[in-house]
Structure formats: structure tokens, C-alpha cells
LacI family DNA-binding transcriptional regulator
Amino acid sequence: MKPTIRDVASYANVSISTVSRVMNAPETVAEEKRVKVLEAIEALQYQPNAFARGLIYKKSDTLGVMIPDIENPYYAGLIRGMQDAAVVLGHSLMICNTDRDKERTLAYVQSFFEKQVDGIVFASDSLHKEYYEEMQRLRLPYVLASTNAPEYEIPSVDIDDEQGAYEAVKHLIDSGHRRIGMICFPLDKTISGQPRYDGFARALREAGLNKFVSCVAYAEHRFEDAYEAASQLLARHPELTAVFAASDEFAMGLISYLRDRGRSVPEHVSVIGFDNIRMAHMFIPKLTTIEQPTYDIGYRCVCKLHELITTGEVEVLREKLPHRLIIRESTRRR
């Protein structure tokens, strides 16, 4: 059993408050008692726990991280960036999976508060009014990662989703495609659904392809959802020669559906994704996609949260990091 501060006090024959003062304000304790306490700490190999230190200093050096779906490969790079920044800045991370459940998310916010985290990274999900009000009530510093909330003055780090989607569809148009569809996130439930659809629609309208703006099927978040959406989209629009998928996982679900129906990518249909998750270059065919700098987003979010915690403000409220088009095997000229 680990020794406690009570054990140290008993061993040194002093009060618990004396032990606490030796650890936190040694100059306030007489030398004789200070030596006894230090000898007791050494003999018992006593180490104060992080929670106790947090109570004393009102600082735990721990950051809470809320991820909506820990199984989604997109978050691997994001978390790695957060972890590397946390190590450099002297923080540890406490990661929770919300499953985009409001009650669970609010419970985690309360739990973080009780565990005295110094701040929270809220990743890749809509900042609902309930979340905002609860974090404001608890006065918890927080930063948004791979999401944004323009209605609130909350620091965030993400990319320009609308422009990224526009460039994806523009690549298909420049490759000679004129019958283009999309598998999209629900517009009213996700932070990136509307801007990625807007980018898709803008590129089509600029090219005079307005009639394909409605060639969209919606999927929640997973491969299986995209597989079903692909079935709906291609049943309604079998003439499509290219499809923009709002995520790489959606692109993989679409390609799997096509393969199961005897259609090849890109020979029959060109497919472009979004994110550039690690599997994008391992998949067959290798995915053409819009790369999000997930590692950099995660790293910058922790740096920004550290800045907010230590100074009370951030120099740049809303950071937009650069994305880029990566051309691989899943698209070709028509």
C-alpha cells in the first residue's frame, strides 16, 4: 500500500499540515522539523499524488480532450499532435470519447471540472449551446480542434472546409468529368457538412453543372453508412462518372460498394476523398484526397490552450491551417 501524507506525519511525529508546508513552503518550517519530515519522506518513499498537488496549486498540468469517435482513424493524427505538444509544454492529456452524445459530453465537462483539468480541447464536433453555457459556467478555458463556432468568441484551429471541397470537385471537373455526385455528412448535425456541400455546389455552378448540385446522398460518420449512401446515390443517378466523398472513410465505403457491383475505380467512376488519413495511401486504389494537417491541428490546439491558460488570451482567435490536394490512383481523366 502506498504511504500517505498521514503516514509521513506519524513517522516524523509532526502534524499533517507541517508535512504539507515542508513540501510546498519549506522556508516556513523550523529546520529541525523540516529535516525530520524529509527523512520520513525518504524512508517511506512518499510521493504526493497529482490531485493533491492540484488542490494546493490550483493547477493540475492536465488537459481534457473530448473526441467524438475514438475509432475513427482521422483522430489518430490529431491526438498524436496534441500529445507531442503536451509533452513539450509539460501537460498530460485525459482523453474521453463522447460518441456525439449530449448527455455524455456534458457529464465529461463536469468530470473534467471535478478533476481540476487546466483546460479542454473540444475536437471535431458542433459546439452546441448547452456545451458552451456549461463551460462558461464552470469557467473552463477551452479550444476547438478541427471545428469552429463563429457565433462565439472561442479559440479554434481548423481548415477552410468549403475551399477544400471546392478544390476537390474542381479537380474532377478539370479532369473532364461533368456528371459528379457527392456523399456528404448531414448538413444540420455536423460542423463540416454544410461547408463541404457548399464547396461542392460552388464548383459545379461555376462550371455550369447546376443540375448535379442535388446529386447528393447523406451518411452519418462511418464506412457502413457511406456504403448504404452509395447504394442510394447510384440507384438515383447511375450516370455519374465521379463522386466527391466528404471523408476518406466515406470514399472507402463508396469504392467497396462499387467493387461489390463489379465497377472499377477509377475506370468506371472516379472517387476523391477528404482528410488524407493514414490508410488513404494503403487502400486499393490509393485515394486521391484533400489533406487536412491533422497532426498540426492537434499540436496547435494544445499550444493555443496553453497560451490561453497562462496568459488569459490568445494572439490569434481563429487559425486556419493550409490544406492540399493529393492526387493518387482513385481519379483519372475522362
